[in-house]
Specification:
Elements: E1 6-9, H1 16-20, H2 35-43, E2 49-56, E3 59-69, E4 74-82, H3 91-104, E5 111-116, H4 124-129, E6 133-139, E7 142-148
Parallel strand pairs: 4-5
Antiparallel strand pairs: 1-2, 2-3, 3-4, 5-7, 6-7
Length: 149
């Protein structure tokens, strides 16, 4: 287990290159878009995209992005990735708990949705450990999950 503090930080022009360089482990790239693609998507959806770098101590360790819609009071974990060097150390779990804490501060922030691509190495079991359950809904091969906060 890691012993350095996990934090969520805004991505700046000084840190964006380091965040874009982060990579998931072998075979995991089919489950999550690159951070560069995610940041680009966020810039084209500024009304709902909330994104942060995940840090472990002072080292960039991952990326997270929400569809943060206080008007509809819907919160969807759009992207989350942990660099392969930081996986299986509790970083993802700590980061997701910080995201859940953030959603609780939002209007009507009582649940968090996400979706996963099924298959070998899917992050589904990771989300289940943190309280997410499959909703039975599916879209373009992705299975939806929900966590009551």
């Amino acid at each position: 287990m890691m012993n350095r503090e996990v934090s969520l930080r805004e991505i700046t022009k000084e840190t964006v290159r380091a965040i874009v360089k982060l990579k998931v482990g072998p075979g995991q790239d089919q489950f999550v878009a690159s951070n560069g693609m995610s940041i680009a998507e966020a810039h084209y959806s500024p009304e709902v995209a909330w994104f942060r770098a995940i840090y472990c101590g002072d080292e960039p360790a991952g990326f997270v992005m929400l569809n943060d819609d206080p008007v509809k009071q819907e919160y969807y974990l759009w992207r989350m990735m942990i660099d392969e060097r930081f996986q299986r150390q509790g970083v993802g779990q700590s980061a997701l708990k910080l995201v859940m804490d953030y959603v609780r501060t939002r209007p009507g922030g009582t649940s968090l949705l996400t979706s996963v691509v099924p298959g070998e190495g899917t992050p589904g079991p990771f989300y289940e450990k943190l309280g997410f359950v499959y909703t039975g809904e599916e879209d373009e091969g992705e299975l939806f999950m929900k966590c009551e906060l």
